[in-house]
Design goal:
The protein has 511 residues and is an alpha/beta fold. The protein is built from 22 helices and 18 strands. It folds into 2 domains: 165 residues, Ribosomal Protein S5, domain 2, CATH 3.30.230.10; 218 residues, Rossmann fold. α8 packs across α21 and α21 crosses α22.
Length: 511
């Protein structure tokens, strides 16, 4: 007897429906076709054990399983459950009337219990688009899939529950998630706050500007100055995720298997901090079975690269194109996958190998020329994509012992949101959302300078020895500062403040 069940395969951040055809006929042996990988082929042993342990009959005649379409490679262990259900249906042990209405996915343990799967959210989205009535999957993934409206999501713990449901012996309770309530409650749950940072008001101001305009930023300072502490608090002043952004971000983490069990949407902006030994594929994505990299896991959030010069140069260089295009393309012989990568880069570094170059109290012990060589580990093209260069000085002792109550992240966030709203209105006709994404043409359109401001910028370029690449970056940052001041035009003070954030472009920095 031939029976069809329906599953799904995830490619990139999207899913495609897979038909699992099971035919039991006269003969011997078990065959699986349709480009299955080793994990799928090994399902035979898991399925057989699960069925025998739970007193179902495992047919000892020829069983043919086809995963269609047959020209798409199938990966992972999530096809165990639909294959097992297909075998039970083809051997007439269960009722097959409901099978056409449901997507079924899940990894089987040897005793029939279900293990979590990857990519439940994109599978649910695709199932809803194609008009399936429901989605049966492991209980740990049910909340994740249940955020999709228009489809019933049934979380189950054991294969027996699925069999009883198909035989009309038991009704499954659909999982319900109140997305908006959870979303609103999550906005108050910040583990970090800028009020925890003693002093460093000028650095907080720089990070506020970076958040308001979506600018990439690098923090340069000696060990213990608070660079990492400040970077970790960056997501707390960024605008909250919209529901659409949360859905996009959750899809990526679902595909990568990074969502916690029984979780639904990601409500907080992601903060990713890979170690400096990270490989190219781990950072931008890829591998033999392509997976999202750190820059995609940081989509709509912050990618923090601590001790930037310690990263391999070729690893940093592969970020250049994704930083410009806001996505990364993984190409293979048979297919090509796009992963979103709209992240905000926050990097930190010591000014030299010993860490004390330009320190107000301690002497640098690096040999002549070492500082320049150390800074050259970061290429010009990469540095060109970082708008703000912020010098972090050590915290003063009086600030550390002070009882002063510092400004909370929520207060800074309100100003950032107001500035972002101005930019959203400005770029409503364009496909960008913040000042950092402006092209040269848009910069000329929205960032006009009067004669006084232009003269100030020209003088600074000559006096400080700033490079040509700094010119447009300064104007974009000045536009963001003007937005924070709710100013329609860029004034002298906005240009003056933006100029100070190009430290690494100064010819005298490592001289």
């Amino acid at each position: 007897m031939l029976v069809k069940t329906f599953g799904s395969a995830v490619y990139g951040v999207d899913a495609a429906t897979i038909t699992i055809e099971v035919n039991i006929c006269q003969g011997q042996h078990y065959f699986m076709v349709g480009l299955p990988d080793n994990a799928v082929k090994e399902s035979w042993s898991r399925v057989e054990s699960a069925l025998r342990v739970n007193k179902y009959h495992m047919p000892r005649i020829r069983i043919i399983v086809n995963l269609a379409p047959a020209d798409i490679r199938k990966e992972g262990s999530a096809y165990d459950l639909p294959i097992a259900i297909g075998i039970l249906g083809a051997s007439e042990q269960i009722n097959t009337d409901k099978l056409a209405d449901y997507i079924i996915m899940g990894e089987l343990s040897l005793d029939g219990k279900l293990q979590p799967i990857k990519g439940a959210l994109p599978i649910a989205i695709q199932a809803q688009k194609e008009g399936y009535k429901g989605f049966i999957l492991p209980k740990e993934n049910a909340r994740e899939a249940a955020i999709v409206e228009g489809i019933h999501v049934f979380g189950v713990e054991h294969i027996d529950e699925v069999v009883e449901f198909l035989d009309n012996k038991k009704e499954l309770e659909p999982t319900v998630v109140f997305v908006e309530d959870d979303f609103n409650n999550s906005l108050q749950n910040n583990l970090f706050d800028f009020a925890d940072v003693k002093g460093q008001e000028n650095i907080k101001r720089a990070l506020e500007i970076a958040a308001a305009g979506g600018h990439n930023v690098i923090l340069i300072g000696p060990p213990g100055a608070g660079k990492t502490m400040l970077a970790k608090r960056m997501p707390t002043i960024l605008p909250p995720l919209s529901l659409q952004e949360a859905l996009e971000t959750t899809k990526i983490h679902s595909v990568a298997g990074k969502l916690k069990c029984n979780s639904a949407l990601l409500y907080q902006r992601p903060f990713r901090s890979p170690h400096h030994t990270v490989s190219n594929a781990a950072l931008v994505g890829g591998g033999s079975n392509p997976q999202p990299g750190e820059i995609s896991l940081a989509h709509n959030g912050v990618l923090f690269l601590d001790e930037l010069p310690e990263f391999k140069r070729d690893v940093l260089e592969v970020m250049r194109q994704p930083m410009e295009e806001r996505k990364v393309n993984i190409s293979r012989t048979r297919f090509s996958i796009d992963y979103p990568a709209n992240f905000m880069l926050v990097a930190s570094m010591n000014p030299c190998p010993c860490g004390y170059y330009n320190h107000p109290e301690k002497d640098c012990v690096c040999a002549p020329g070492v500082v320049h060589k150390y800074l050259n580990k970061i290429s010009g093209p990469l540095l060109d994509r970082i708008d703000l260069h912020v010098e972090v000085t050590p915290v003063k002792l009086e600030d550390l012992s002070s009882k002063t109550v510092y400004e909370k992240s929520n207060a800074i966030r309100k100003r950032v949101i107001a500035a972002r709203q101005i930019q959203e209105a400005r770029f409503s006709a364009d496909e960008i959302h913040c000042n950092a994404q402006m092209s040269t043409k848009l910069t000329q359109t929205w960032c006009g300078l009067d004669n006084t401001s232009q003269n100030l910028l020209n003088a600074a370029m000559k006096r400080l020895g700033l490079s040509a690449r700094a010119y447009e970056r300064i104007i974009r940052v000045a536009r963001t500062i003007a937005d924070l001041d709710s100013s329609e035009k860029i004034c002298n003070e906005h240009i003056a403040e933006a100029i100070q954030f190009r430290s690494l472009d100064r010819e005298s920095w490592s001289a």
